[in-house]
Amino acid sequence: MRTVNAVAAPSATEPLIRTTIERRDVGPKDVLIEIAYAGICHSDIHTVRGEWGEIQYPQVVGHEIVGVVTEVGDEVSSHAVGDRVGVGCMVNSCRECENCKAGLEQYCYEGNIGTYTAVDRDGSITQGGYSTHIVVDEDFVLRVPESIPYEAAAPLLCAGITTYSPLAHWKAGPGKKVAVVGLGGLGHMAVKIAAAMGAEVTVLSQTTAKHADSERFGAVAHYATKESETFDTLANTFDLIINTVSAKLDLGAYLGLLRLDGVLVSVGAPPEPLPVQVFSLFNNRRSFAGSSIGGIAETQEMLDFCAERGIAPEVELIDADQVNEAYERVMSSDVRYRFVIDASTI
Ligand SMILES: [Zn+2]
Ligand SMILES: [Zn+2]
């Protein structure tokens, strides 16, 4: 075991504090990573505040991790000391169910082992990336190409893959019209990736305040969802809508924007059930779907795609002392577009 610095939540109601945690010894298939940067995901905040269920405290969160390999186990073959690597939302899975065998570990029937708050194979609770080091099985460690700016790479491990996976699955590309609902951490990556795939991208945001940013990220149009005429103007328009917001959504209104065989995919998770009028699915043979992060192979594909196309998240770099303030700013949507913690300050 080694003791490393971390920033942890002591309870659901107290601010995060500096502390130390134990990391397991490097096993034969493990990689020790010295963390350089860790992104702050909205899920981190919901989790530490107990909003997604009770958890054990103290808890370290963070599942957008990049760093450098500093030690490898005897049987490790895919990573070497000095490599720039990343870790996303999961650190293991059963590896035997049909979804794992298909490379879709995020949909493991046993439940994938999350990077934080999950019960690890040794019975301990996994602790996330707001820390100086982490030990992870090599099969759940990604290669982060050097051409991706180091401090901007971390959010690709959650925000990037969460949007890339449905865009790839539902074949965003030339000739396809894609709408992105919400221009936050997830939404701005959805716009950049969909545009790079060749799709015609429209942003649907509450107001037009971020119109210039939408265009800078590659969107051709930006509409305010507060204006009811938006839903008339854009009726029967899109092949694919990616909903990135966690707030309650009028599903019928958004389904009405889909053309024939169009799909509305939610990657944002409102806490309460959403009612759907089935007639709005009959029209244009529409679908309503969900999607969760991506498999390890697809996450690597996403990183390589972003490196080739020169795509990276927009980030605001902070010190460990600014995490609580950053949480408040995330909650009030006052971030353009992702906070990243400089792990050297932890
Ligand atoms: Zn996340
Ligand atoms: Zn499995």
UniProtKB/TrEMBL annotation:
GO molecular function, one term: zinc ion binding
Cofactor requirements of the protein: Zn(2+)
EC number: 1.1.1.2
Domain Enoyl reductase (ER) span(s) in chain numbering: 11-341
InterPro entries: ADH-like_C, ADH-like_N, ADH_Zn_CS, CAD-like, ER, GroES-like_sf, NAD(P)-bd_dom_sf
Domain of life: Bacteria
Protein name: alcohol dehydrogenase (NADP(+))
Originating species: Arenivirga flava
